[in-house]
Structure formats: C-alpha cells, structure tokens
Predict the structure.
Amino acid sequence: MSQTERPAQLGWIGVGAMGCPMVLRLLAAGHRVTVWGRTRERLRPALEAGAREASSPADVAAASEATFLCVSDSAAVEELVFAPRGIAAGARAGTVLVDHSTIDPADTRRMGEDLRSRVAMEWVDAPVSGGPSGASAGTLAVFLGGFESSVDRVRPWIAAYAANVTHMGGPGAGQTTKCCNQLVVTTAIAIWTETLAFAQRCGLEPGRVVEALAGGWADSAIRRALAPGIAARDSGLPRLGYFLKDLGFASAAAREYGAALPVGDVVASLFRLAAEQSGTRANLNDVMELYATNSATIEPPSDPPLA
C-alpha cells in the first residue's frame, strides 16, 4: 500500500483558526492525529473528531511519523521544538517536522540544522496561503522548503488540505516564497485601501466600487475576501501586526541577498504609521483612518537597498 493510501500516525501542535480545519481534514482522510495545545478548549473540535491528546510536544513527536506546527512566530516555534519537553526531546531519528508557521527564513535554516544535528529529525518549512476558509475547503497553497526526500514523504499528507503544493527548494525556500506571497498581498491591500478612500473622496460609495470592479482586471482574491470589509470599515479586519511581521521577514531577506523592495518598503511604512497611531490592536480599518484624517502621506525610503 502506498503512502497516499495508508493511514499515517501524525502529530499536530497549533490547533487554532488555521490549524484546526487542517487537522479535521487529516482526520477525515483517515489519518490518526495526536494533538497538543496550551488551551484545551481549542483542541475540543479535533478531539471530538477523533484526535488523541498528548501531554507535551515531546509526546506528540514520540508518537508520530511527522509532527506539524502551525503557530504564531519564530519564538513560539523555537520553544516548542527545543524546550525541555519540546519536540526534539521526543523525536525519533528519521521522522519529519513540518512547520506551517510563517517565520523568518534565516531562523528556519538555523533551527532546521540544529534539529537535524541533535536528533536526526528533518525539517520542512511549509507556510501556507488561503486563510481558514481555504484550510476548511482543502484549497490552500503551500510552499515547501527542505530536502527532496523529506518533501516527498510529507506531500501526500499535506494534500489533505491543500490544492497547490510546490517544492520551492532547500531549507528556508518555503518561507522565502511566503515573503513573496505577502509582498503581493500587502501591496494589493494597500492599493485597495487607497483606492476606496479615493473613491469616497470623489463622491462614490466604496462598497459599490468593490462590486463594480468584479470580473475585470482589478478583480482578485483580495477584492473578494477583504475589500468589502475595508469599504465597510469593518472592525474585525486582520491585524496590522501580522502583516508587519511578514514584511519584516521580506525586508531582512532583501538585505541578505541585496534585493530592492521600494514598493514593499512604502507599504510597510504605511502600515507602520497606522499601527503607531492606533496601537497594538490596529487592523486594516486603521489604514483607512489615515486617509480619512489626511495623514497617510508617506516619505519613500531615502536609500532603498539595490541589487
């Protein structure tokens, strides 16, 4: 029986808004999944669907052919992997860690080398795009970085919740591809915000503009998913801190490789200004507020890095 057909014993840490629907799809595909989390209530849907709860990340790794992570940042990943009862403490040689978190490519390479040298566990960086709705529908895009043998092992399992799974290169290549994704996403968000503020100043109803541009060249997943909320000044829009974190990774990679990001730098400046004026809970609605108060003037970087 091939790996695509046989049930696998998998582990999962990070059963949140993204991780939960991904786990549910693995369970629906017939895989056995062991989960761990600090907040038991978040685990409940997975446990009710048949997942088994472990007492620590180490126990998850000890029970699993591959251990999946889907958490907030590099610090959270490092703690879960290398803490005294972390993944490395329970990992078996030859198993694989699949990190769906979005973190710094340089951190990924460093931690992957450390994990391999300690316990001979391979690291596949696998950031995703498509949001919770894409995870539920099984239509995520996943960008893989790592050695080909490890990528080939985990690809059939990832296919349970992803429609587009691409091996981008060696360790860290998946995270670098996520930087590319986020540069496009944040630039699209920024121009939609600016466009809708412009439309309102010109006497147009922003929501009607969002509807009018459907089907034309200005249409996109961002128009469908976020532009209606931006037009309505929805307080539940995504937090700016999430995007600033990812733009910071792109900026660091640009410095490392000598790439120029003049557009990305301006978008980051715009988002940073909105966050500074609105506090830690600032979201995309606060970018619209900059335009409403005529305070969205951004000075371009004086010396953008040149290739």
